[in-house]
Write a structure and sequence with these properties.
Helix content: 40-55%
Number of domains: 2
Radius of gyration: 21 Å
Low-confidence stretches: none
Distance between the termini: 69 Å
Strand content: 15-25%
Structural class: alpha+beta
Order of helices and strands: HEHEEEEHEHEEEHHHHH
């Protein structure tokens, strides 16, 4: 008969790479305290990484040893586990779309849930709660545009809106225009200057 950590490891090895695990997923294997002890032993043995209290990810074995996953992959899995929206910040989106040349050096994400910090090896990943209007359009191009405009600020909004009008597909631009009432006045005014807001 296998020990509890071995049973947990067998289950983990069948899961897709980057899956965030919680102790609740293994309660059918034994009592909760035994599961938590088993997870701790797997962390000590280098088979799992504890990214935050109660959240674990499996180490990916390569011929060079265990490696950690990209923070973006962990964030996607965490969003699924927690059933919450977690998206990139306006700084990341602005850089990706060429609205700025500044490159974000920290891993920061926005969420509809509570703020928290994850530790992925030596990498710190911050997840910050964002106001409702900033997350209203979710993980769409229009939602990313709102976050980019917010990050760029009032001084750059005119140029940024004209670039976004060219970058976004027509359906995403219409979604952005339709959300103008929930946006700050300075942002809504710049968007409506490019389109007829009704």
């Amino acid at each position: 008969m296998k020990a509890l950590p071995e049973k947990i490891l067998d289950i983990i090895q069948q899961l897709p790479e980057g899956e965030v695990l919680t102790p609740g997923r293994f309660v059918h294997q034994g009592p909760r305290h035994a599961v938590q002890r088993g997870l701790s032993r797997l962390v000590e043995g280098g088979k799992l990484f504890r990214v935050a209290r109660g959240f674990y990810i499996a180490a990916v074995e390569t011929r060079f040893g265990a490696r950690k996953l990209a923070p973006e992959m962990i964030i996607r899995s965490l969003a699924n586990v927690q059933s919450e929206l977690i998206v990139a910040t306006g700084a990341s989106v602005s850089n990706k779309w060429g609205l700025t040349t500044q490159v974000p050096v920290r891993y920061v994400f926005l969420t509809t849930g509570r703020s928290r910090v994850l530790q992925v090896g030596k990498t710190t990943v911050s997840i910050r709660h964002a106001p409702r209007w900033l997350m209203a359009l979710g993980a769409t191009g229009a939602g990313d545009a709102i976050r980019a405009l917010d990050w760029l600020g009032k001084a750059s909004v005119g140029d940024a809106v004209s670039k976004l009008h060219k970058l976004l597909p027509e359906s995403e631009w219409r979604a952005l225009v339709s959300a103008h009432r929930s946006l700050p006045a300075w942002m809504a005014k710049a968007i409506c200057a490019r389109s007829n807001c009704t």
